[in-house]
Specification:
By secondary structure, this protein is an alpha+beta fold. It contains 7 helices and 12 strands. The chain has helices at 3-8, 94-102, 104-107, 115-126, 133-137, 178-187, 245-257, and strands at residues 37-41, 61-69, 75-84, 89-92, 110-113, 144-145, 164-173, 191-192, 203-211, 214-222, 228-237, 262-268.
Length: 270
């Protein structure tokens, strides 16, 4: 395995964010719809790019995932279930979810989509309706624990005028393409600060947003020279409540998934 794969996936199959720390406590799953991630799975040997512009024929299956977050908004478990076109049933998918993040050949078969797209494909090729998210969670049988550690303290200073400042990193696998960067630039909007074509460029863009009295700013960062990226989110919270933080993490993750990147974990730095 490559260095980044060894870091992402531990020897016991758990995604390893900090070797030597035991699995952390698992939080209650969020209620309601809208927090699951959907993927189409291409047949093995399909040479098309796992991107939205690569075209989607009859899929081999559908993968549904959810990151379970703790009170610090760190990912502590990855739950998943899959639907197979040939068998037309839902199955446990923890091993496949791990392979998506550790094996580039498997990852190339996976196309991130939204719920409506997954539902349309299932209806077209499977002749069935996509279950609601509460039902889908019932198929999550063998989630993958994500190793946790105490937040890394990178300064830990609170921005002047705010009650608290936190830093989270959302880690992704896959490459960001020029069209993907252009979409992010329009969507966030993103200020481009680095050359995407330069493999040594690290921070490629920055953005910021106010949500009520809270202020958020983030960096789009390449990790090393392999197919790994992250979004580093700094949250300046005006009061003791962090209600806007989790939706912000979700929005950033969704925007990156639209570009074909696969979320690996969410961790807190400070």
């Amino acid at each position: 395995m490559s260095d980044v794969t060894t870091w992402l996936v531990g020897p016991d199959g758990g995604i390893d964010r900090a070797a030597g720390f035991p699995p952390g406590p698992v939080s209650t799953r969020p209620a309601g719809d809208g927090s699951l991630d959907y993927y189409l799975v291409r047949p093995a040997g399909d040479g098309r790019s796992a991107r939205r512009d690569g075209g989607v024929g009859a899929p081999d299956g559908i993968l549904v995932e959810e990151f379970v977050l703790d009170r610090e908004h760190c990912a502590v478990r990855l739950d998943s279930a899959g639907w197979t076109a040939g068998e037309r049933r839902w199955w446990r998918a923890a091993a496949f979810s791990r392979a998506v993040r550790s094996d580039p050949a498997v990852r190339a078969r996976v196309v991130p989509v939204d719920r409506d797209e997954a539902a349309a494909v299932l209806r077209l090729f499977g002749g069935a309706d996509l279950p609601d998210e509460r039902t889908l969670r019932g198929y999550f049988r063998d989630g993958t624990p994500l190793r946790t550690a105490a937040p890394l303290r990178l300064g830990g200073e609170v921005t002047a005028g705010f009650h608290d400042t936190r830093v989270h990193r959302i880690l992704f696998a896959n490459d960001l393409t020029p069209p993907g960067l252009a979409d992010l630039r329009a969507r966030w909007p993103l200020t481009v600060t680095g050359d995407l074509a330069d493999p040594l460029a690290r921070v490629i863009g920055t953005a910021e947003l106010r949500v009520g009295d809270d202020a958020f700013r983030w960096e789009l960062r390449r990790i090393g020279t392999v197919s790994a990226w992250c979004v580093d989110l700094t949250s300046d919270l005006a009061g003791p409540h962090d209600d806007a933080l989790r939706p912000m993490l979700r929005q950033l993750t969704t925007a990156m998934r639209r570009q074909g990147l696969i979320p690996v974990t969410i961790e807190r730095f400070a």
